[in-house]
Design goal:
Layout lengths: L13 H12 L9 H13 L5 E7 L5 E10 L9 E6 L18 E2 L2 E3 L3 H18 L8 E6 L8 H8 L8 E4 L15 E6 L1 E10 L14 H13 L5 E2 L3 E2 L1 E9 L9 E10 L5 H15 L4 E6 L12 E2 L5 H14 L4 E5 L4 H8 L4 E3 L4 E2 L7 E3 H19 L1
Parallel strand pairs: 3-6, 3-7, 7-17, 8-16
Antiparallel strand pairs: 1-2, 2-6, 4-5, 5-19, 8-15, 9-13, 9-14, 10-11, 12-13, 18-19
């Protein structure tokens, strides 16, 4: 990497950035319904002369989903210099009903922008867009690729998965994802913060098969719902892995579905259980853990344990950690201190997202750095507007250092 140079991060204008944020928040974009915001992002980049392109995202077998990512590239002068991926997702969760105002208001008050998805992650999306436009005027040696992806909040992260399927990540040497890090960190953090890894996730899909009988004579049957409840409790208490940086794994039963006859012992039941994992735990060990729990319980019902259906065997969220001494981390550390006047905290994400696909599946050194807020996925969600601008400036400064 060449001697660090900088563009003027102060060229990121506060008012313009927040106006863009408000425009993004006002576009309804739950996962699988992102067409309007995808078109907005494409046209914004096109109006800036940044030559965006649509990347088709298709998953016909399970969800029937059809959508598009938006990609753009800044070409550097040196093919041997590192290529950096700047990633943000465009979708939100479904709008929740508890809002006492328009959930897409984009209202700004007391340094906060309100709206569903304002923090997760239209603040990070706005930061990526204005930073990428500013970087177009930088003297870059390496390439910078922007990816605005769909379906991060959905079941499979299909947008990020498509980047891997189409070989986009093969061209990259590192990635920055502008998710709101501190709010979902393993420990209490405040921005500036760099999150250098995340736990992974499996979803147990368990079938419990009992024996039907008349509900007035339950002793003549095997109650699949009762055994599923017993199993859910035991799985919730099972031993999990631990990691010095990622912390402990976790288990959370999510749903039990079965029975329903008016007066019959339930003969079958389905149990879904979340399992967050750390480095050292894989599909084989996670499955074996659950099978041991079942064996120890010695239930009357028959139990089959597998994982949730996925578009392909590798479409899973694996855990990862990025080295604190990686050049990208060093660049972001220096830039965060330069922009905010504070050395960034180092932390690790407690849940999963597109960054797992980049950090684990694609093997890219991946850092989460994004604006923080509160109430993500709920009513009253907001993002701190100052932090949106700070993140944009950090991205400009750090990208120029890393790829400049």
């Amino acid at each position: 990497m060449s001697e660090q140079t900088h563009t003027d991060a102060d060229a990121i204008e506060y008012d313009e950035t927040i106006e863009l944020l408000q425009d993004l928040v006002r576009i309804r974009s739950p996962y699988f319904e992102e067409e309007a915001i995808v078109e907005f992002v494409y046209e914004w980049l096109d109006d800036a002369g940044l030559d965006p392109e649509y990347q088709p995202v298709r998953e016909p077998d399970i969800t029937g989903y059809e959508g598009d990512n938006v990609l753009a590239r800044l070409e550097g002068s040196d093919p041997d210099a590192p290529t950096l991926l700047l990633n943000a997702h465009v979708d939100t969760v479904q709008l929740v009903e508890e809002w006492d105002e328009d959930p897409l208001s984009g209202r700004v008050e007391d340094g906060k922008c309100y709206g569903q998805g304002a923090c997760d992650m239209k603040g990070g999306l706005a930061a990526v867009l204005v930073a990428f436009r500013a970087l177009a005027d930088a003297d870059l040696r390496g390439d910078v690729i922007l990816s605005a992806v769909v379906d991060e909040e959905g079941p499979y992260g299909l947008g990020a998965n498509q980047l891997i399927r189409d070989g986009i990540t093969d061209e990259c040497d590192a990635a920055i994802v502008t998710e709101p890090g501190p709010i979902l960190a393993q420990s209490e953090l405040e921005n500036p913060a760099l999150l250098l890894g995340a736990r992974g996730r499996f979803l147990y899909d368990v079938t419990v098969r009992g024996h039907a009988a008349h509900g007035s004579q339950p002793e003549k049957g095997r109650n699949a719902v009762v055994d599923a409840g017993t199993l859910a409790g035991a799985l919730a208490e099972m031993d999990v892995g631990t990691h010095p940086k990622l912390g402990d794994g976790s288990v959370c039963p999510l749903s039990i579905e079965g029975g329903g006859e008016t007066l019959s012992v339930p003969e079958a039941c389905r149990l879904l259980v979340d399992r967050h994992v750390v480095i050292g735990e894989d599909a084989e060990s996670v499955l074996a853990d659950a099978e041991r729990v079942v064996a120890d319980l010695d239930l009357d019902s028959d139990v089959e344990i597998g994982f949730r259906e996925a578009p392909a065997p590798d479409v899973r969220y694996g855990p990862y950690v990025t080295d604190e001494d990686h050049p990208l981390v060093r660049s972001l550390t220096a830039s965060a201190e330069s922009v905010t006047g504070q050395a960034p905290a180092i932390g690790y994400f407690s849940s999963v997202g597109d960054f797992n696909y980049f950090g684990h599946r694609a093997g890219l050194p991946t850092v989460i750095v994004g604006p923080d807020g509160e109430n993500i996925h709920g009513a009253g969600e907001f993002v701190y507007t100052d932090e949106v601008v700070d993140v944009a400036r950090i991205l400009v400064d750090a990208t120029t250092a890393f790829a400049g």
